[in-house]
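Before relying on records like the one below, remember that each one covers exactly one chain. Contacts with other chains, cofactors or solvent are not represented anywhere in the record.
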Amino acid sequence: MAITINGTGTIAGLAVGGLPDGSITSADLASGAITTGALPAGSILQVEVTEKTADQEVNSSTHIDIMSVTITPTSSSNPILLLAIGGAIVTNASSRALRTTFFRGTTNLATNSINTGAYLTEYRGLNSELIVPHCTFHYDNAHSSSSELTYTYKGLSLNGAVWANSKTADRLSAITLMAIEVAA
């Protein structure tokens, strides 16, 4: 079939893939022309990030809030990848530890439970001060919501105070919390 340009600006007879590569750029696409439903599974749809630079003492055998992030999924079937990265300080006792986990609302997302509460990771001290880089992650594919979700990174301590962030100016660290929506 011959290619025909109609008086209305439409083109007839053009086969799929008939334009040369690179002839259409992202600037040529109308806003919203590619929807999230058209993206392949595993595509990153959105990223929400929060950072904490202030000191955070954790001296409790029950979970206390360290920081939170909110995200509104575009679909109830899209999983959320949670990632917290930072530095913990555990001092003066080999029995002290920082245990961390994520909560979605009031639901603890940890997959195991030991003694004082469920947690995803544990950072244990030595007999002197120890700065421990920490990374906690969780893949939440059980949220089933397209409404705003709040995820809170929480911690508890064993046998005394620990720090989820640096307690001295010369050891300043930051904790970064990310919620990443992935196409199902």
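The two ends are 39 Å apart (CA to CA).
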